[in-house]
Specification:
This protein is mostly helical and 413 residues long. 55% of the residues lie in helices and 4% in strands. It binds iron/sulfur cluster.
Length: 413
Amino acid sequence: MPVPTIPPVLTDEVTFARYPFLPQAAQWIRDMAQRHSIDLNELLDGPWMEKARQRARIRLIDSVQSKEGVQVVGGDIHTEEGRLIEAFSFYYARLVVCASEDERLIARWAQAEAARAEQLLIQDEVNLPVLAETYISEAVRISQPTGSAVLASSSTSMRQLRQGNSSLWKIGLSDFIEICPKITGDRWRLPNVDLKDGWVTLHNERQYTSSAKLARLLRERIKRGIEQEALEKMAEVTTDLAVRLAEPVGIVRNLMANKASEAIALVGAEESDWPPCMQKIIAELTNGVNVNHFGRLFLASMAATLALPQEACVGFFRGAPDFSESTTSYQVEHVYQHEYTPAGCGKLKINHNCPVLPGDNRTCDQPWMDHPLKYIRATQRWKRLTSKPAESVEKEPAQPEGSAEQKSSSDDD
Ligand code: SF4
């Protein structure tokens, strides 16, 4: 079923500020602009809108850099000023991505804003029905929650948010069929759902509540709505607007380029660049050793980060004593889908997955070595420097230690 053509009536300003992409919010934003005399000049350069532009920059940076999407934490939307900032920061960020005329950036931004909405909706039992009615043709709440939901803070992970207690929902089969191919995981495959009389019941699971499932489905439709609208607006960007937004567009483009070159550098890593911990786990699995869960998860997340094909990653586990093609494929797919960050050296050592002792490996001995990805970067850099003509090598630092590798962050602990 398509998205409903007539969305439900909504008048709550706090909801508009929280979900500024809603079709019902468009008129509210126009009214606010009129009430506060906010025109394009004010939005792009005026002092009154400076805070909105700052918040927009954060939204855009999060879009490129954060796996979880745009941070949920924003201004205080229970004040008129806070609502203005939230609404116009979304509006300004959309102008910037439209002015970039880069469809990849638009898609990424839409994805990040939709991921933010998903996080909010999991905890928002009040607005979830309205958004469901806006984006899904057939969605019905069967029962109210029987217990309390997870109390979220800014450090609560998505996995934690999806646990707990929630209402019980069912959605129409045609909506489910249209949305689910975009979501990976067995849970979303038709043979695995409770289907009756054209309705799919989204059962509460210990790790995934019914409301969280509905929010996940909504995320796909919200993303599509945000993206479509931005693509339409992109066609309306004038040369003058593009020139005036050149600076923020440049900042976001640079961020994207840095992210891409980082990923490409890692993706290009050869087997000989892989750290000893990764090589040891692969060798042990090949020899039928029962590698512990931590080591297995590390290997899969490294393979995902290095963009190795999923089949190659499954192949690493083929020699494991408990290998099952379907289970391993499912688990590997899960790791690839959720972009797990590989564990750092500290945790690998504690879990007996680091094979080196002091003096065994010069790179691992470096004081800055706290993450296997740093090992790869250092090895690649060292290779690059030593493969240059002797004359230019003399002008470069003699060892990869320090500099860029030392500054890169670690996800350990
Ligand atoms: S020190 Fe770190 S990079 Fe080196 S083998 Fe141990 S865990 Fe891997």
